[in-house]
Amino acid sequence: KQWYQRRVRVDARWNKTTAPHVYCYKSSPDWTTLWLCFQCMVPKVIDCWVDNMLLNFTENSFRNRDGVETKVNDFGGTEGVEKLDKNGYYPYMKSLVDGIAAIPGYEKGVNLRAAPYDFRYGANSPTGKLFLQNLRTLIEDTYTKNKGRRINIIAHSMGNLYMIQFFKSVGSSWKRKYIKRYIAVSGVFGGSIKSIRALVSGEIESIPRVLVDANAVRAFQRSFQSIYWLLPRKELWSATEPVVFTPDKNYTVYDYADLLEDAGFPAGREILKTLEGSTDVTDPGVDVYCIHGSEIPTAAQFRWRPKYFPDYQPDQIDGPGDGTVNQRSLELCKKFKRLKDHKVYPGIKYGEHMQILLNPAVIEYIKDIISETDGSNKQSGTELVF
After folding, report:
1. Alpha-carbon distance 71 to 103, whole Å?
2. Local confidence band at 4 (pLDDT 50, 70, 90 cut-offs)
3. Distance, CA of 35 to CA of 54 (rounded, Å)
4. Would residue 68 be called left, alpha or beta, if left means φ above 0 and alpha means ψ between -120 and 50 degrees?
5. Residue 230 pLDDT
6. Cα torsion for 20, 22, 23, 28, to the nearest 10°?
7. What percentage of the chain's residues is helix, strand, coil (to nearest 5)?
8. Residue 225 burial by CB count (10 A; 0-12/13-18/19+): exposed, middle or buried?
9. Is the dihedral of CA 230, 234, 235, 238 positive or negative?
10. Which position among 125, 157, 195, 329 bears the catalytic label?
11. What is the pLDDT of residue 374?
12. Which among 51, 262, 322, 329 is annotated as catalytic?
């Protein structure tokens, strides 16, 4: 399993007045890869890296640490979503992008474009709102430069939460003019139980604790607004359904503020308030094709042993899902009014949250959707934005 799921490459440069240790660089004038950087996660060095990854939460908003500047890569091109690291050792959407680029008429950066976002923020943060504005501009620019051909949107994982908020922000006439269809892959529409572990004890999955300090990882994960945005929704989990068990108390999705306070993070109560207005899953108002995996053990509950809460990893109780997102969350797309097709790929090899992007059947299915003709042997919508 890969604990760096749902994220794109983020670069940084910094000029700080302080650092956590004497061996941490206070200044790095050149852009360097902040995420994904496995060599940054070794003991001791990880503290330097975490200090740059952390977000400050002040005045009810999120921003980089003082002196740290970050950026995503190749907005409007495709490199920003093809790989998670500078050297391409950890590909992300590369197989899907290359598959679409092989369709005659497609050209990367022209009518095959990407919209990477800083995964640390939610859609209603200043950074998230700027991304949504830039996404709208990118869609309109692509439409204009390609002779008014409407856009196919493909989103993966948390990108689908951004798309729901985006569709909520534009009117129906704008959607009719610019959007051909929306293809949702592994959508975390109703949240994921796994985000709870990230906030309580740090999300490191199967990486041994001797290699990665879970508490150090937890420090920056607690500072990310997006982790709170991914918490399971009250609409899907009931007030009588515990998702966390500890020796002293059990918690449901209605108890997040108490859970965080009991886990030694009372600031989480205020951070949760920043999500207001951004957690509802409204109908996108466009044609939707929904794709996700199933029949893969997925975290459904966590049980902390005596003296393990909150600083040690819990036991995981599994339920159905795609290995990352719970089934009930993935299947929220079935409620969309203009759902055209719903494809489910069972098993780890074909439907796991990240593996699904490498599944040849999924890639061919998406290619068939976007290559659909309108009866005149002309493709009805050929420009893509990820």
Report:
1. 30
2. very low
3. 12
4. beta
5. 97
6. 70
7. 30, 20, 45
8. buried
9. positive
10. 157
11. 40
12. 322
46 φ/ψ angles, rounded to the nearest 5 degrees: -60, -30
Length of the chain, please? 386
Could you report the per-residue pLDDT of 358-369, keeping only the tens digit for each?
A: 999 999 999 999
Is residue 157 part of the annotated active site? The answer reads yes
Q: Rounded mean pLDDT of 190-205?
A: 92
**In 10 A of CB 384, how many CB atoms?**
24
Nearest to residue 92, comparing CAs of 104, 82, 100?
82
Q: 3-state DSSP call for residue 362? A: helix
Closest CA to 241 of 232, 198, 134: 232
Q: Would you say residue 27 has pLDDT above 80?
A: yes
- CA 319/CA 295 separation, integer angstroms: 9
DSSP codes, 122-175: -TTSHHHHHHHHHHHHHHHHHHHHTTTPPEEEEEETTHHHHHHHHHHHS-HHHH
The CA distance from 127 to 143, in Å, is 24
Give the 3-state secondary structure of residue 105: coil
Is 248 assigned a catalytic role? no
Distance, CA of 154 to CA of 176 (rounded, Å): 17
| Distances, alpha carbon 251 to alpha carbons 109, 199, 293, 321, in Å | 47, 14, 28, 21
Kindly state the average pLDDT of the residues 191-217.
81
Confidence of residue 141 (pLDDT cuts 50, 70, 90): very high
**Residue 118 burial (10 A CB sphere; 0-12, 13-18, 19+):** buried
Q: Comparing C-alpha atoms, which of 62, 65, 72, 67 is closest to residue 224? A: 62
Cα separation, 120 vs 286, in Å, equals 27
d(CA 156, CA 207): 24
Integer Cα distance of 13 and 29 in angstroms? 6
Q: Round to whole Å and give the CA distance between 295 and 231.
A: 21
**353 is an active site residue:** yes
